[in-house]
Design goal:
The protein is an alpha+beta fold and 86 residues long. It has one domain: Nuclear Transport Factor 2, Chain: A, CATH 3.10.450. It contains 2 helices and 4 strands, in the order H-H-E-E-E-E. Strands 1-2-3-4 form a 4-stranded antiparallel β-sheet, covered by helices on one side. The longest helix has 18 residues.
Length: 86
Amino acid sequence: MKRILTLFLFLTAAPLAALAAPAVGDVVGTTPEAATAALAEKGCKVSDFEAEDGKIEAKCTDEAGKPMEVYIDPASGAVTEVKSGD
């Protein structure tokens, strides 16, 4: 019975974990402070920002510690692309 309950909890929580990641279209802000706070709410701990191809690149790690790159439109503050750093 414990195995069934554990499996049930894992399967119901898995989709919620996926919702925590930043996604294209999310508006995270146009300042480093706003973007850092908004990305942290999405489970992405920012370590650095840099300009790349007219966009802001936020280098961060997800809740599992995997590196990610989140590209932000500097005018709108919207996420335009998310790349896994694997």
